[in-house]
Amino acid sequence: MIRILKEAETDRAAIFAREDPVDSVAEPVRAILEDVKAHGDAALKKYTKEFDGADIPTVEVSMGAIDDGFRQADPFLVDILYRAAERVAAFHQHQVRNSFLVNEESGIVMGQKIIPLERVGLYVPGGTAAYPSSVIMNCIPAKLAGVKEIFMVTPPDKNGKVPANILAAARICGVNRVFRVGGAQAIAALAYGTESIPKVDKIVGPGNQFVAEAKKQVFGKVGIDMVAGPSEILVIADGKNNPQILAADLLSQAEHDRNASAVLVTDSEELALAVQAAIEEQIPKLKRAEIARASIDNNGKIIVANSISTAIEISNEIAPEHLELCIDEPFAWLDKIRNAGSVFMGRNCPEALGDYFAGPNHTLPTSGTARFSSPLSVDDFIKKTQYTYYTREALSVAQQSVSHFAKQEGLTGHARSIDIRFDPKVTGE
Description:
This protein is of the alpha/beta class. The chain contains 17 helices and 15 strands. The strands form three sheets. Strands 1-12-11-10-13-14 form a six-stranded parallel beta sheet, with helices on both faces. Strand 5 (about 120-125), helix 6 and strand 6 (about 150-155) form a beta-alpha-beta unit. Helix 2 (about 25-40) crosses helix 3, helix 3 (about 40-50) packs antiparallel against helix 8 (about 185-190) and helix 8 packs parallel to helix 9. It is globular. The termini are far apart.
């Protein structure tokens, strides 16, 4: 049963505590990375057999198989995928950056170039559930950024096939190549390259703890979006809410995995008790009831705060991945929110809306990292190069300042690289 903690009676450490998974997978992941680095496709096929129970003759999914998947996918879902992709693209279009040039001083030109990454790898989770929504959320911003090659890796089923719905999403979004391999071994292939999978510049997309650890270990060799932890939802609710609806919202994240975190912060003890009872009523009705039960029992909590203002302070400290503001006039409180991955405003905006259809990205910072990081965006698929041009006359104006600055730092070579350009013995002037 979900715990109820009263702010006035509970140690602050208990209120803000996160239950992190205790099993370390660093060493087995390191071994997988090294194996794939050394043995390429052979290692990928071995691990696909071991972990997914599938014999795959080839690592890559053919274009014909992708087309077949598109035709076999649920027609109503295909229509939804098209509309969702349009909404995601419309939102992310506002994030597209432009290069700029500054020429405000005589003889000086400065600027910044926006350059798309050449090749990006998208990890799409599989296994117990297939997530075509992850294809949309990861691919659309990359396309808008101008990435030339987008590769997708995803685990196959026991027959060695990628689910049709995922293949349909890949075709709709414009994924260039699809590979039926998952887990840490897929991250290794994207980072180091194999006979079938070219290495990429950056890897994005959520996965299990093996995928997260693998991304952490290859960072530096390639870029990554973030090290994603378990799914999280925090709901701030006043006493006017329907407890059955709040329970459903909390369970929408608890069903993700056993380590997921569902937290309600309310100023109503009566609502807290009603939501606790509603959760117990709803869990047995879920297809993933066993997972939701473990999440709620181990990581779920209801915090009874002194006020909505205090509830927001608690939320800012927790810095949740998803935050629902189920209160009157949510926009009046929005400026008070400092740390959250994505905020869902009002009583009619469940987090699930953002997972699939609203438009903002669903790849979000977890484990409190919303204190310093942001949702996946077009910015994750670009790099910036700056440039500077000075005429000789403009450099002469800056010479003394730069030379003196360098000497103050003890870098006389820096100073000399400026001064030598005005030394008559060198220039012959």
